């Protein structure tokens, strides 16, 4: 069985988006290199440095499913029914998107809570990894002991306020192993395994 990986681009002060939910400069590094690549959707190419491309390719090829919250699903309009990475998306929500134009045809599943969503995503991913989006959903999964690894794209910017990387929940304290560090341009990739 694969790992559950919380993956996020994050500011130096720990935010994954501005107060208005836009990423601001957090995604600029997706366009500052010479290597064109995609995750699972070939219609969403980006250009990164060779170091970042090698790192992201290694990460993306292992992903079978992702878990996100309803907020991100709504902000992206469910990525037009095409998973941004992997073959399946599990959305944590109490309001299934029955009126979504891609309902019933896109590989999207709706789950009532984070543990159910992660379990379903693991089933769908098989022996591949599951990514969990940052914010409240990722923080809940981390605090529940469901996350094996945290991968951060640390961007050299301070946003001042915004959406916290691990949501707004409190304890417990969680320790990590020493990071693997990959330096890109205007981004540092950090891989932390959860200490068990």
TrEMBL record:
<dbReference type="InterPro" id="IPR002734">
    <property type="entry name" value="RibDG_C"/>
</dbReference>
<dbReference type="InterPro" id="IPR050765">
    <property type="entry name" value="Riboflavin_Biosynth_HTPR"/>
</dbReference>
<dbReference type="Pfam" id="PF01872">
    <property type="entry name" value="RibD_C"/>
</dbReference>
<protein>
    <submittedName>
        <fullName>Dihydrofolate reductase</fullName>
    </submittedName>
</protein>
<dbReference type="InterPro" id="IPR024072">
    <property type="entry name" value="DHFR-like_dom_sf"/>
</dbReference>
<dbReference type="GO" id="GO:0009231">
    <property type="term" value="P:riboflavin biosynthetic process"/>
</dbReference>
<feature type="domain" description="Bacterial bifunctional deaminase-reductase C-terminal">
    <location>
        <begin position="4"/>
        <end position="176"/>
    </location>
</feature>
<dbReference type="GO" id="GO:0008703">
    <property type="term" value="F:5-amino-6-(5-phosphoribosylamino)uracil reductase activity"/>
</dbReference>
